[in-house]
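One record is set out below.
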Amino acid sequence: MLHAFFGGTFDPIHNGHLRPVEALVDEIGLNRVILLPNHVPPHRPQPEASPQQRLKMVELAIAGNSLFAVDDRELHRTTPSYTIETLETIRKERGKTLPLAFIIGQDSLLTLHLWHRWQALLDVCHLLVLARPGYNQQMNTPEMRQWLVQHRVTDTNLLRQQPQGYVYMAETPLLEISATDIRQRRHQGISCDDLLPRSVQRYIELQGLYR
């Protein structure tokens, strides 16, 4: 079984996170996706919602959906959340032979070379890349293009036959939804209907978030 993890700030979690992952599940045949909310993301502005609020929104978004689970380990950290360190911990917990995958967006793939110890990622997991609207389909440098050619696979069976080491580019739906846009809409008093689960929207309203 391929164990897949999906990290993010989730400030807030929205349909642009959930629907492409649901499509990825169908495309690859995943049994479960574990969401990993970040505590202190090192490469982007700090979240507006607190760790506890962001965790609650994730829990509300996946309530009753057996496809998803949440792992809150990063929210207990007091230092920046480096993906490689979390994945190395998960690899140690689950053994050397279990296939592990980490889900990222096309936008993250294009800036992967800026991540802390990014070269070590494929030593502990596969990367499953969600399509993102408006982003270049080609890596930015010849070195990164060669890296992708070396590791990319199109046969999903390979993701289960090896514990790590591959990059899979998924054909997931392109949704023009972002947490930044949702926060800006909230700041301006514009409706966010259909952009995020209703339970999350109600929680945001009750907590007075993103005003």
